[in-house]
Amino acid sequence: MKKIIIGVIAFAVVFGGIIYILSGRNNTGKIPTPQSATEKTGSNIPTQAPELIWDDPAGFTFRYSGGLNINNHEEDPDNYAHVELTSPTNPGNIIVWAKDTTAADVTAWVRTEKEFQGANVIDTTLGGQPAKKIILTGTVKKTVTGIVYDGLLFMIEGNTSGDTFWTSEYQKIGDSFRFKPPDTQTSDTSGGNSSGGGYDEEETVE
């Protein structure tokens, strides 16, 4: 009698094991492997474009996203720098300028520009120096951050119409903008990181 009971128990254990194994298989007869997050969603997680650094012979550097197109307009004979950034997917652009000016300082520059009359003017810094940020909201919508430094006018002009992508890129360029010491000024451009003084706005409106 005991042998019969033991045999029944052994059969039940073996049969239960077979059922468990079969229940873990898919309809192809193979035991499924865990799916990754990418396989479950059917899409890849996008990677952020690397940041590059523009090193301009006019004596400044700034960081920008590697997915942008950059044109330094070598055909422009009138300006020391005319660096235009565009995107293959987002309309608009950002231009970084270095120009001659007759203004003694940034305040005088803002007051003599007819385009800025009636615009919001915010005190800020650029490259660790006092600057002005001008927000134009009329027929022409753009943001301009300018500084008079070492006898030249440096400007970051954003023709972005409030686009989130360009707003972020404008902030990145302003935050990373640096003036180079005279003995390090070169005409090379390269990818990399930057550090030092930045672009900080103060809520002071003229």
Protein model, in words:
There is one protein chain. With 206 residues, the protein is of the alpha+beta class. The protein folds into two domains: 2-41; 51-205, 3-Layer(aba) Sandwich (Protein Transport Mog1p, Chain A). The chain is built from four helices and eleven strands; from the N terminus they run ααβββββαββββαββ. Strands 3-4-5-9-8-7-6-11 form an eight-stranded antiparallel sheet, with helices on both faces. The chain has a three-stranded antiparallel sheet with strand order 1-2-10.
Helix content: 10-25%
Gross geometry: globular
SSE string, helix = H, strand = E? HHEEEEEHEEEEHEE
Write down the CATH topology of the largest domain: Protein Transport Mog1p, Chain A
Output mean pLDDT. 79
Uncertain segments are 36-46, 187-199, 202-206
Kindly estimate the percentage of residues that lie in beta strands according to DSSP: 25-35%
Number of E-state strands: 11
The tally of structural domains comes to 2
